Amino acid sequence: MSDISSWWQVDANKADWLQGSGDLLAGDDLQTAIIISLFTDGLAKADDNIDESYRRGWWGDVNENYSIGSRLWLLNRQKLTVEVARKAEDYARESLKWLIDDGVVSYIEVGTQIIYPNRLNMIIRYHRPGDESDLRFFWVWEA
After folding, report:
1. Residue 43: which residues within 8 A CB-CB, separation 6 or more?
2. Which of 57, 75, 84, 138 has a 20 to 30 A CA-CA distance from 122?
3. What is the pLDDT of residues 73-90, one digit of tens each?
4. 6-140 adopts what CATH topology?
């Protein structure tokens, strides 16, 4: 059974469920898993220099060693620099690592591209047996 299909809407800069003929569409579970992994707020680590009472994270996380989501939210109010772009790549790789650990994909590559003055493109490439796909996610930074 397939999950409800999520899709990244580039123009709206958000993810949403796909609809077709009045029903929610099912399928493309891997893309849905990637969207959830990237855009669910992951638990901040103790050394992230953030207020201990505001570490976010998903309420169902069992422990810090196995949590859902990414720490991309920590970059929300940062100035768009090369260092921030590298952190975004690291946070994305960290949140998607479970796909490799669980054998869902054989590799994941994450790259970023700064589009001045206020946009960071994130390109995620993955490979699973019999398929090779590219997904592009756009993160719009505050000016």
Report:
1. 55, 56, 57, 58, 61, 64, 67, 69, 71
2. 57
3. 899 888 999 999 999 999
4. Nuclear Transport Factor 2; Chain: A, (3.10.450)
